[in-house]
Design brief:
Structural class: alpha+beta
Number of helices: 10
Shape: elongated
Helix content: 25-40%
Largest sheet: 10 strands, antiparallel
Order of helices and strands: HHHHHHEHEEHEEEEEEEEEEEEEEHEEH
Strand content: 35-45%
Number of strands: 19
């Protein structure tokens, strides 16, 4: 009765299964499809705006909004690595044995069973036949290793591309490097955004994975921000003049452009977007009861008292395009003993009838704005590992498909009688590109047959 294999053997065989490989590939393909269709890096608020609460729950539970950093996706990558390693370890010893194998003897009865073989006759003396075989095979194919049989026989083998059988394992290694680099970047790297107002500094990055923030080991200061526009109003180019501050001193200055990122301390900054914020606004408050007009400068989100009154006003919000009515500010007013009241004031439509709060008609006469630069911040310590893996993969695939292990066997024996002085059997085999090898084999046989003919003594 055959003994059932132990648990370690069963686990090993399971990880060496091609069925497991197919399952992992299908799971990764499906996950990648989801990651492509579902926008990545959405915040909780953005998810709630796009999807129902039930869908948001499952997206956040499964980490589909940051899929490539999700734990289950990393597990799939790890299983693929493990499966590839086990499959390689299972098949590599046989390949190495095949590569290291050397012929010790050649039996002619085996050569005639090869699908690719030819039987030739030689009209040369025995020593001439042996010399002709060696010279021609070395000249056309190369690397003939002869087995001397004295006056009874002559045998030899020649081969090219022996190490091509190992190229597929180079491809395996490249896949492992790519997966390792991806996991390295996923675990040790990060990706996020930071908005820096012109003239200010920041070292806080809002991560794409959620509302978490990360503190950089250095500070980024935006010295100046410039933006130019096409005639259509579309942005043509935006540029941020940045200074990296570390240890209390300026260590690097760089003009950040869309196609010219800044890299420092393994962290890369990309020019991604821009916007404007409100610093202050000049506002006129016309008291409809008394007819008095109060001209005031309101700093953004600071409480200011209307002159000669106890009424307090504050700009609490700002929108560049409020419901397609242009720029607008949200002003809150607090009167003593009354509840606070507020409204959106349309800066681009000063005569709009809704520009009023309580007994005040309000007009925005000037808005002081500053630009902020939107910077994408990325750290990926595995990027060079991935690039090296891709390079190795391209080279490995090229060598795997365009090189082959080609082998020749030749055996000659002297004969007596008839016109032939000896008979020759030559056989060949290749690991791939059979058609090309057959042409090479036929050319070799044709040249051998021509050279083995007896020379005219004229």
């Amino acid at each position: 009765m055959q003994q059932k294999p132990g648990l370690p053997t069963q686990v090993y065989e399971a990880f060496a299964s091609l069925k497991l490989t197919l399952f992992i590939f299908l799971a990764l393909a499906f996950a990648s499809l989801v990651g492509t269709l579902l926008p990545q890096g959405l915040t909780a608020e953005q998810l709630e705006q796009r999807f129902s609460p039930g869908v948001v729950h499952w997206i956040q539970t499964l980490g589909l909004h940051d899929l490539y950093r999700a734990g289950w996706f990393r597990v799939l990558l790890f299983l693929l690595c493990l499966n590839l390693v086990v499959c390689t370890l299972q098949r590599l010893p046989k390949t190495i044995k095949l590569v290291r194998h050397r012929e010790e003897e050649i039996k002619p009865e085996k050569l005639v069973k090869f699908s690719l073989h030819r039987q030739l006759t030689s009209g040369l003396p025995w020593t001439g036949t042996k010399s002709c075989l060696q010279e021609t095979i070395n000249e056309v194919f190369g690397g003939l290793k002869p087995f001397e049989g004295g006056d009874k026989s002559f045998s030899g083998t020649a081969e090219k591309g022996r190490w091509s059988r190992l190229m597929v394992y180079g491809v395996h290694l490249s896949v492992l490097l790519i997966l390792f680099g991806a996991m390295l970047g996923s675990v040790l790297g990060f990706k996020g955004f930071m908005n820096i107002v012109e003239g200010t500094s920041s070292n806080e990055v809002v991560l794409l994975s959620g509302n978490e923030t990360l503190t950089l080991p250095f500070t980024v200061r935006c010295e100046k921000f410039d933006v130019s526009f096409y005639d259509t109003g579309a942005p043509k180019e935006f540029r941020s003049d940045l200074t990296i501050v570390q240890g209390g001193r300026d260590v690097l200055k760089h003009a950040l452009l869309v196609n010219d990122p800044l890299e420092y301390d393994g962290i890369t900054l990309y020019q991604a977007s821009y916007g404007s914020i409100l610093n202050e606004a000049d506002v006129e408050f016309e008291d409809l009861d008394s007819g008095k007009v109060y001209k005031m400068t309101l700093p953004y989100r600071e409480i200011v008292t209307v002159p000669d009154t106890r009424d307090q006003v504050q700009i609490i919000n700002f929108q560049k395009d409020f419901s397609r009515f242009g720029t607008a500010v949200a002003i809150m007013m607090r009167k003593e003993g009354q509840k606070a009241a507020g409204s959106w004031i349309l800066a681009d439509r000063p005569d709009f009838h809704g520009n009023r709060i309580e007994n005040y008609k309000i007009k925005v006469t000037r808005m002081g704005q500053s630009y902020y630069t939107g910077i994408q911040v990325k750290k990926d310590p595995g990027v060079w590992v991935v690039l090296f893996g891709f390079t190795l993969m391209v080279v490995g695939i090229g060598l795997t498909f365009y090189t082959s292990h080609r082998r020749l066997w030749v055996h000659a024996e002297p004969v007596t009688g008839a016109d032939a002085l000896s008979k020759v059997i030559i056989a060949g085999r290749t690991s791939k590109n059979t058609d090309g090898f057959e042409e090479e084999f036929e050319r070799l046989c044709e040249r051998l047959q021509n050279r083995l003919k007896p020379q005219d003594k004229g």
